[in-house]
């Protein structure tokens, strides 16, 4: 909350400075004497383009978060499937496979989630645990047709976990393209300058309106930065799917 207030205050100060300094520099005889509509059309075009960039980025943020959450849920479901199927495997494979599933899920929650937030990547040690799980499942004998069928179904769930994990790694590193950020900042600067170009004079009401405009733009830019990565910032993808999986393991046991 403190960060949001500081950024909003800075946005208001910057907007007022731009307006006051621009109004001082802008030739006085041009103020409110624009005459033709061409300038108004350009300013409207700038505002509409800025709104279009905002809308496009909001859609991208929503898509990124939706994909990341969907992949996380698919991975957790696959882990529950492996754990449930392994419950019927013969010993010692039953305990071994379930042990690796628990270890992998715990590593994702305790280590990998923080690593995705800080460094936007997956943990190599957690990947090694998933590889060990695959090796443990491959070691299950297939002499018994029922066990062989069970192992085949468990490998299907393991494939789901592997693919979802790869997608999660892509989601952790993904961010909005740089050219959109450039367009957003250029558009914000043009919107702040537009009151000067439109010839508005320095009055108390105009200064208050410009300050409010700066607050809105600065707050929006801050929130966009917080939304840029689905596993970082304030609006992160929840990890409830893995927590619920750990709870389900206990219920299966």
Can you characterise this structure?
With 253 residues, this protein is mainly alpha-helical. The protein has one domain (1-23, 40-252). 79% of the residues lie in helices and 0% in strands. The protein has 8 helices and no strands. The chain has helices at 2-25, 38-86, 93-119, 124-138, 145-173, 178-197, 204-227, 240-252. α2 runs antiparallel to α3 and α2 packs antiparallel against α5. The longest helix is centred in the N-terminal third of the chain and has 49 residues, at 38-86. The radius of gyration is 27 Å and the shape is rod-shaped. The model is unreliable at 33-37 (pLDDT under 50).
What key phrases describe this protein's structure?
253 residues, mainly alpha, rod-shaped
Q: In this structure, how is the largest beta sheet organized?
A: none
Average pLDDT works out at: 81
Number of helices: 8
Give start-end ranges of low-pLDDT stretches: 33-37
* Number of structural units classed as domains: 1
Shape: rod-shaped
Helical fraction: over 70%
In N-to-C order, the SSE pattern is HHHHHHHH
How many strand units?
0
Strand % is under 5%
Cα end-to-end separation:
43 Å
**Global Rg:** 27 Å
Structural class: mainly alpha
């Amino acid at each position: 909350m403190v960060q949001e207030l500081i950024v909003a205050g800075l946005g208001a100060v910057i907007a007022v400075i731009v307006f006051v300094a621009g109004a001082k520099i802008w030739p006085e005889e041009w103020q409110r004497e624009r005459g033709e509509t061409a300038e108004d059309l350009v300013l409207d075009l700038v505002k509409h383009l800025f709104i279009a960039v905002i809308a496009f980025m909001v859609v991208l943020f929503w898509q990124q978060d939706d994909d990341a959450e969907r992949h996380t849920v698919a991975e957790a479901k696959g882990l529950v499937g492996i754990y449930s199927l392994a419950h019927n495997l013969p010993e010692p494979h039953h305990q071994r496979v379930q042990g690796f599933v628990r270890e992998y899920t715990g590593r994702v929650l305790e280590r990998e989630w923080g690593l995705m937030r800080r460094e936007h990547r997956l943990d190599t040690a957690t990947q090694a645990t998933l590889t060990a799980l695959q090796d443990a499942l491959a070691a299950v004998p297939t002499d018994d047709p029922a066990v062989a069928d069970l192992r085949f179904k468990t490998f299907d769930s393991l494939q789901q976990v592997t693919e979802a994990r790869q997608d999660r790694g892509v989601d952790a590193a993904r961010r909005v393209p740089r050219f959109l950020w450039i367009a957003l900042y250029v558009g914000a600067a043009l919107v702040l300058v537009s009151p000067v170009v439109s010839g508005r004079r320095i009055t108390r009401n105009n200064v208050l309106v410009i300050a409010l405009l700066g607050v809105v733009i600065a707050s929006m830019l801050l929130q966009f930065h917080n939304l840029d990565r689905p596993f970082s910032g304030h609006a992160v993808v929840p990890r409830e799917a893995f927590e619920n999986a750990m709870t389900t393991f206990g219920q299966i046991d």
